[in-house]
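Feature request, filed as a ticket because there's no other form

It would be nice if the structure record came with a short human-readable summary line next to the tokens. Right now we just get the raw output. Example of a typical job, pasted below so the devs can see what we mean:
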Amino acid sequence: MEITDLTPAERRVWRAFPLDESVDFREGADDDPESGGSWGPERTIRAEVLRALLLDGPTRDGEVAGLKLIGARITGELRLKYGAVEHAVRLRSCHFERTPQLYGARLRVLVLSRSVLPGLTAGALHTEGVLRMTECRTTGPVRLAGAQIAGGLFLDGARLGTPDTRCEEPLLQLNHAVIGADVQAKRLVAHGQLRLNEATVAGQVNLDDSALHAPGGIALHAENLSVGNDLHAMRLRAQGHVNLSGARMPRHLNLAYARLSHPGGQALRASSCVIGELWFREAAPVEGDVNLRRSQIDLLHIRPEVWPDRVKIDGLSYRSLAPHLPAEERLPLLEREVEGYLPASYEQLTTAYRAAGDEAAARTVQLAKLRRHRRTLPRYARVWGHLQDVTVGYGFRPLRAAGWLSALLLTGAVAFALHHPRPLKSGEAPDFNPVFYTLDLLLPIIGFGQESAFAPRGGYQWLSYLLIVTGWILATTTAAGISRSLSRQ
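Raw output as currently delivered:
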């Protein structure tokens, strides 16, 4: 392309390119590229001119060429498909009439900050540095599937899609992408799906203060996402399904102060994940199901009121819970399991309390587990469970047996003190002692010689039978409870 074929505005860009000088067409710092469609020829650049510059533009010895353009209206289609560009590309606050086509291109750096675009097609893109789309606005999808970005990806303050238009494909496509540093997307607003399936991010993903609007659909699809450090999503507002199944993040998944909403479906699916710490500190109650099946988490920081009415936690393992709360506040969660009674969930909660040194809470969880199991049995099989529960709390309440024994001992001693049973052999019987006589009836193993020497009549005979039966029940349930305790040790 000859310089004689260029407009005055294009000549400015052409002359600045060899020196990597900036060309700023803005009339003021507050120029809004949203209205760039009305900009006149004095700030209009054809895409074919930019393409000619980037692929075969003039250079000067001793200078590093580069494209640095601000506040321009770019007409036509910028086609760099499979092209190799040896210069930095910086197109800030520009208005693109058509979607740039950068599929398979190789670039040093690409900066589109504060620009307005119909979309971006850059699948399999390679950059040696960053891809910066800070505060960009697009009406269509940003296609970066399979991209390899050696530096970071910056989407802070970007707005993808519009509330009135539903995009048929994900608005941000980073599936199978490899990011050599961070994905920074603070304050991102997306009216559609973000897709990060199989993506690898060496640093962190930051979605703090972002808003994902996909009511009834998928807001974030990040199956098998691999993050080197953290996924920050503090104060995230997500309307739609958030899918992190199979994700790996060795440090934090931080959803503090977040608001997840997908009524009638799964608000969060983080099954089969490996996460260092999962934080829901001060988060709003989740609207929709939560699925954490088979995930491995070191620290789970969540208050009971954040959990929804339906959860899926089969196979979930965690080392500790925060904040530390009484077992009675954590147990209702296990009742919300969609699959019903899961013994392993109770064992996991018990393990967490024991790791925290709260043995009393661990016993409470085990007692709740046995009571829950009892509800799964046929009616006839629940009787023995009720007896163990009432008498010794399945072995977790041993003092309860002592209380029953004391009450029965007092009842029998008073009753038999008021009405002595007759001796079986007059003159041979020892002196009657109502306390030891009652103990003889209650304790099936120990004998004080009273029971065999005296025989009550009438109602007192029935009382003696009741004491004998109750004594055997207490002894059997206590032995069962002790055996259960020893087996747990």
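Something like this underneath would help us a lot:
The chain has a mean pLDDT of 89.
The two ends are 84 Å apart (CA to CA).
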